[in-house]
Amino acid sequence: MSAIRLLVLGAVRQHGRAHGYQVRNDLEYWGAHEWSNAKPGSIYHALKQMEKQGLLHAHEVAPSTAGGPPRTEYEITDLGVEEYLGMVREALTNYDQKTDIKSAAIGFMVDLPRAEAVALLKERIRRIEEWRGAVTEHYVPESGPGRLGHIGEIMHLWLHTADAEADWTRGLIERIEGGAYTFEGEGEPFVGVLADGQENPYATGERHPGDAG
Question: What's the predicted TM-score (pTM) here?
Answer without folding.
Answer: 0.82
